[in-house]
Amino acid sequence: MKALLALALTLVLSGSAFAQESVFGTLGFGLPEDGLSIRSRGMGSTSTALPRIHFGFRNAASLAVFDRTGVTLTGTLQRRSPEDSAGSSSQSSMEFPLLQLVFPLPADFVLGGGVYRYLDFDGFVDTATVFGADSLPVRLTTEGGISVISPQLARRFTRFLRVGGGIDFYTGSRERNRRVAFDPETGVSTTDSIAHDFNGSGFSLGVQIAPFERLLLGASYRSGASLDGELTARPGFGLD
Questions:
Q1: In the Cβ-directed half-sphere of 156, how many Cα atoms lie within 13 Å?
Q2: Residue 236 pLDDT class (50, 70, 90 cuts)
Q3: Cα(6)–Cα(2) distance, rounded to whole angstroms?
Q4: pTM confidence score
Q5: Residue 119 is inside which H or E element, if any?
Q6: Long-range contacts of 53-56 (CB under 8 A, 24+ apart)
Q7: Contact assessment for residue 113 and residue 23, using Cβ atoms and an 8 Å cutoff
């Protein structure tokens, strides 16, 4: 019972803290993620300093502590409604940003892999544009995201040294829609959209060193990735 209560509290606190870290946040504006678990987010986005076994993609060397098969699936609800004199917007996303599996192998090797959300583009903004003597309501909507599929391999050489690495495959899409209402009462409007499909690849390396008892140092590197994209435009006019 205590474990379930602690898990629920971690989910609530981590979601709240993460949502308050920026007015823009990760919704609609595409701020990158690096595959942190709910537990890491709840502890101030830390990873190496967390005690005991934990999941995450920030440092592949952390896989080397697993001595049994494991799986984790975490979900996050994020919601904002900023508003000012120029307009208002709303961003809301319920997603499962992290799925990870771990399989211990012989010779102190550990194989891991999974998927996490790298960028999230969901959100909309309501504004108005001047057209002659009228002011036309305009809604800009963006949705989609980019995910990373990452197989990783780590090894524990000694109890003082762990190393790991992985390959990052980026995949996903984003669609931006614009709707201009000429007559909101009858629902006459014009819409157009631009869609991007993304793909790319990169790699990550990590190390953890324990020079003294109760002291763990970690370092990791994730390469930059060049994302290839395919653009599709769709104009239209309709009666809603």
A1: 15
A2: low
A3: 6
A4: 0.71
A5: strand 109-120
A6: 55/98, 55/100, 55/102, 56/98, 56/100
A7: no
